[in-house]
Amino acid sequence: SLVQDRRIFEVTYYRNYYNNFIGNLRVIKPRTSPSVDLARAAEQANSPGSSEIFFVTANAEDQIVTQGLELLYDISGTSGVNFAVNATFANIIQSSNDPLVPGFNTPPFKFNVRLGHRKISRNFGAEFTWRSRTEFEWQSAFVDGTVDGFSTFDIQMSFRMPAINSLFRLGGTNLHNIGQYNSFGGPEINAFYYLSFTYDPFQSR
Asked: Is 185 left (phi over 0), alpha (psi -120 to 50) or beta?
């Protein structure tokens, strides 16, 4: 809903039902044939160092359900203040008897909070953002593992110079340079700092 042309409030819930969901099956091949030595083959199957793992594309045996919830509140004040909160939840529901590896690879919770003011003074504005994500289990044919959660802070400051029709922006994302990953075994994401200058001859003084 939009309230007073300044406030937005949204609640979104979804639930999806999948039959024959496509994923991977882990097939473990021990080095000793079970027909030769069943006990040794079983021991090797439980030891990564003495067995091999193959991934085979397959369909889920039972129905799989995914669901999620998103909350959004955004307000823009007449004085120039902007405040927004966004939170999301997502998960997958799978029968414990189904051997399929679905590879959902989505964090259960994500949060964003933004606070800014476009004119703290006549020619100065700033925006501050806090982002957070919880840990989740990564599943793939390449590797499995836990992707850690993180919380980061972003800031942007803007300085208008009407005398020369220009705007400076100074800011950074992930100010504390917290190493983060979006996939297990993927590249590490660190801080990003920037300074920009914009000249607009048509800018209103």
From this structure: left
CA–CA distance, 70 with 125 (Å, rounded to integer): 29
Contacts for 31 with CB less than 8 Å, ≥ 6 apart: 44, 50, 51, 52
Judged against a pLDDT cut of 70, whether residue 6 lies above it is answered with yes
Task: Annotate 34-84 with DSSP letters as a single string.
Answer: TTT-HHHHHHHHT-GGGEEEEEEEEE-SS-EEEEEEEEEEEEE-TTSEEEE
Q: Are 97 and 62 in contact (CB under 8 A)?
A: yes
pLDDT in tens, 121-161: 888 999 999 999 999 999 887 778 899 999 999 999 999 98
Token code pair at residue 183: 């996939």
Task: Provide φ and ψ at 42, rounded to 5°.
Answer: -65, -40
Spatial distance between the Cα atoms of 114 and 77, rounded to a whole number of angstroms: 14
Tell me the pLDDT band of 170, cut-offs 50, 70 and 90.
very high
If one counts every other C-beta atom within 10 angstroms of the C-beta of residue 159, the result is 15
Smallest CA-to-CA distance from 125 within 84, 82, 176, 154 is with: 82
